[in-house]
Known about the structure:
Layout: H1 3-9, E1 12-14, E2 22-25, E3 29-32, H2 34-46, E4 56-60, H3 70-86, E5 89-91, H4 98-105, E6 112-115, E7 129-132, H5 135-142, E8 147-150, E9 153-160, H6 169-180, E10 188-193, H7 202-210, E11 219-221, H8 226-234, E12 254-259, E13 266-268, E14 276-278, H9 279-282, E15 289-292, H10 300-310, E16 320-323, H11 328-336, H12 339-346, E17 349-350, E18 370-373, E19 389-392, H13 395-404, E20 433-434, E21 464-471, H14 478-481, H15 495-498, H16 510-516, E22 520-524, H17 536-544, E23 546-551, H18 556-564, E24 568-571, H19 574-579, E25 585-588, H20 591-597, E26 600-605, E27 611-615, H21 620-628, H22 631-637
Parallel strand pairs: 3-4, 3-6, 4-5, 6-7, 9-10, 9-12, 10-11, 15-16, 15-18, 16-17, 18-19, 21-22, 22-23, 23-24
Antiparallel strand pairs: 1-2, 2-8, 5-20, 13-14, 21-25, 25-26, 26-27
Helix pairs in contact: 2-3, 2-5, 6-7, 10-11, 10-12, 10-13, 17-18, 21-22
Bound molecules: alpha-methylisocitric acid (MIC) and iron/sulfur cluster.
Iron/sulfur cluster (SF4) is lined by residues 63, 97, 117, 119, 294-295, 355, 358-359, 375-376.
Amino acid sequence: MNVAQKLISSHLVSGEMKAGEEIAISIDQTLTQDATGTMAYLEFEAMGIPKVKTKLSVSYVDHNTLQAGFENADDHRFLKSIASKYGLYFSRPGNGICHQVHMERFAGPGQTLLGSDSHTPNAGSVGMLAIGAGGLSVALAMAGEPFWLVMPQVVRINLKGMYGTGVSAKDVILEVLRKLTVKGGVGKIIEYGGEAIKNLTVPERAAITNMGAELGATTSLFPSDEQTLAFLKAQQREGDWVELLPDSETEYDEIIEIDLGSLEPLAAAPSSPDNVKRVRDIEGAPVGQVCIGSCANSSYADLMAAATILKGNRVHPDVSLTISPGSRQALQMITENGALSDIISAGARVLECTCGPCIGMGQSPATGTISLRTFTRNFPGRSGTVNDQAYLCSPLTAAVSAITGKITDPRDLVKEPIRIGLPEKYLVDDSMILPPSEHPDKVVIERGPNIKPFPIKGPLEESLKIKVVLKVGDNITTDDIMPAGSKILPLRSNIPAISEYVFSKVDNTFPARAKSSGGGIVLGGTNYGQGSSREHAALAPMYLGVKVVLAKSFARIHKDNLINFGILPLTVSEDVYDSLEQGAEIELPGIAKEVRESSEITLKDLKTYRTYSTEHGLTLRQRDIILAGGLLNYVSGK
Ligand code: MIC
Ligand code: SF4
């Protein structure tokens, strides 16, 4: 078996490990972050279970950290009390970005992790099966239920050679994105191997597995080997190590070769992570902002690499350089060794150890300027600025460009490879991670006025007559469906309020039109719902009355979220997509009966009188969830 199969088979509770079959796996660990966590814990509370049933569950606060009103602070307090009562660890605001801290302090080879954040595969860096999912799926895992998924194909990416000067792990994943695109990983696990990996440290591996999310992959992972042991030892956790290697005769569904030695510095140009260019081909463009941080590139090693370049230099007068360390551990270490002082002397603006600008929580770039970011996503407007021009690149390219004030190939300034190895010992201080209460019965859940109960849908109607309220194109992201940023994110615990922003950047009349037509259908192109795990992109449309999403194809997590909240995802052909217009009145005459008994759903266009038949492709379990009106109804009715 390969590493992915070993991890799955040791956790398999239902189904057969055949690509395309529905399987269920047991979950050892869960993580949530605050922007998805409040809903996840409201859902968990509704299940009436006194204590989480996982081996370890951690609640992080890292997204909604600007406290421009009471909302985020309310949420933090709620999350702290929930964790204390229900047996979770609570990573306090300021302690770091969930994925970075989880990798440092909790991730373990051979185990499974389900996280309510799409970049959970960061922990695949230590040989863990780490999967991103919607909050409700994570709530169920905390309740001891297995996680259901379609058994993916396993793609092996063989790495050979070693990168040269100016190239780093970020360029590896950008190269993979260039080759595979943002939909190339759907239905796949990406397993890395090959002679080069023995030289890649765990934080370098994490920069690669993290952005497997941008491929749409179910997860990405590395074997657990001597490098994993070295990392865990330096984190004083060698007891968590187990070796996990692929068998020598293993087969893969696909094999891709990448020679690290032939890689050049790369960047994803606006506004998609797969719009990858050679830095050489875009160099010279003036830059207004450079941001170093995010769960992809904020480790101690990444910060040290940036500090090495900035040392003795000055940030260009036209550039605002921000540094958001991934964890308090990383920040404390660069403070103690003096690198922070190099960063400050160069003129950087040092931010909190949080997601910050990556999710538009502050630091939106100026109009018409280029923002160069070591982040994960550059979807249109995600930075908080309309018509933004965000480029994704490595910390080396970012630091060098911050000095020159224009997009610059790092090899112009850096003449020797900068690779920061593992420190012998990381600075371990877990005092910002609060353990659960020893007296949970005495803990009172603190609920501020920002926290509203989540809406529940009724069972699926027997028949529907509804309008296509919106028709959109390919690769619609969950940022398009349910935007984030500092103004909207604080409403994550308040579905009635946040639903007013559904599709607001695509068509701000959508919420009113959806409500006035009693809900409706959204029609999308390929890879609909790519990007984040935010279940709000299903929950808020559900609140507005959306009943069906028709699309040429769906991204994995979003499709699951639609089903979890009782919205029927239907895959349609090009022909159906082309024939249906926004505003079309559609009848689904026997929708419930067809979901129950048939593999096809009938759609009638009431204007053209054309009838379409489309396969729903749902498993028996998914059919029952849709019929019940969502996963919570389904679980409580079982
Ligand atoms: C993201 O990077 O888009 C987020 C914000 O971390 C999301 C989660 C969310 O929307 O809360 C993700 O990646 O899942
Ligand atoms: Fe946070 Fe950005 Fe990572 Fe999402 S991608 S978890 S917003 S740092």
